[in-house]
Amino acid sequence: MYSGDNIVDAAASIDTQTGGPIVSITLDAAGARINQRVTGKNIGKRMAVLYIETRSKIKTDAQGRPQKGPQGRTLRTSQRIEEVITAPVIRDQLGKRFQIEGLDSVTEGQDLALMLRAGSLAAPVEIIEERTVGPSLGQANISQGFRSVVIGFGLVLIFMFIYYRTFGLFANVALALNLVLMVAVLSVFQATLTLPGVAGIVLTVGMAVDANVLIFERIREELGNGNSPQASIHMGYNRALSTIVDANITTLIAALVLFNFGTGPIKGFAITLSIGIVTSMFTAIMLTRGLVNLFYGGRRVEKLAI
Q: What region, left, alpha or beta, does residue 255 occupy, with left being phi > 0 and alpha being psi -120 to 50 degrees?
């Protein structure tokens, strides 16, 4: 008669008169005309609801081995499978809206409505590749993600300490606290840490280092201009502040857009990135400035270890 493309809606409910499960179906205009014409001529007969699936099957030789094509790809053949889902009796001439009664349970009605709403695919599904994934794969990926965070974090610490000496040590302390703050905030919100979330943490570590590098290079520039160490520290932080804030705000806007329009994994990445931006700005601007002032403030300094 008509296919799933003609079904506009299908909803499972309970008949208020009989108390039994029913499925209410709504057809489009073309399906309604077909339904009215066919059911009017077949009152008292059964109308079968068919589930039709085209499955892809591997071609095999006489020994049962998969056959290969010219390019080495496994040859497949299509197999059409038809299954009667339900076959209710036509009690009257039907039109655009009608109901299927006599179902055994509410669950059966819900399953039937779900299959009817699914409609039909324009083309059969062909399996290109099939893999069996064990439950340990997720844990292995998480472990590898954390290992990458630790390795990246360690390399950054070494580089900052070698290249910026005492100031690099201040940056390393701030970077460690940044990770602690991120984990604390994620724990407060009871957020689940996924692989995209781990990627967000790794990106945040790099962004936090970028902020410190901007500040330290600005201090070096002020020292090269002949300013005193104390003045160079003050001017370095003040003049690098606007650049750091602008860069982090633009990244935060992108993270918010990802969170608003993205799906589950993308949202996990956006959450950790957003939290990391806020914590990295705090540690890079406030914490390192406090450590520098604590170490160099209130005393006369002839040379900075930077």
A: alpha
Compute the distance between CA of residue 232 and CA of residue 218 in angstroms, rounded to an integer.
Answer: 8
In the prediction, which pLDDT does 170 show? 92
Supply φ then ψ for residue 15, to 5 degrees.
-70, 125
Domain layout of the chain by residue ranges? 4-118, 136-296
Cβ neighbourhood burial of 177 (10 Å; 0-12, 13-18, 19+):
middle
Report whether 301 contacts 219 (CB < 8 A).
no
Which ranges of the chain have pLDDT less than 70?
56, 70-72, 119-138
Kind and range of the H or E run holding 156: helix 136-188
CATH fold of the domain at 136-296: Multidrug efflux transporter AcrB transmembrane fold (1.20.1640)
Q: Which pair of structure tokens corresponds to residue 146?
A: 């954390």
CA 59 to chain centre: 37
Q: What pLDDT score does 129 carry?
A: 60
Q: Does domain 4-118 have CATH number 1.10.357?
A: no
- What is the rounded CA–CA span in Å between residue 88 and residue 103? 9
Q: What is the pTM of this model?
A: 0.53
DSSP 210-235: HHHHHHHHHHHHHHHTT--HHHHHHH
Q: Note the pLDDT of residue 195.
A: 76
Tell me the pLDDT tens digit for each residue of 235-266: 999 999 888 899 889 999 999 998 888 777 78
Q: Cα–Cα–Cα angle for 220, 226, 231, nearest 5°?
A: 70
> What's the CA gap between 174 and 153, in Å, rounded?
12
pLDDT for position 172: 92
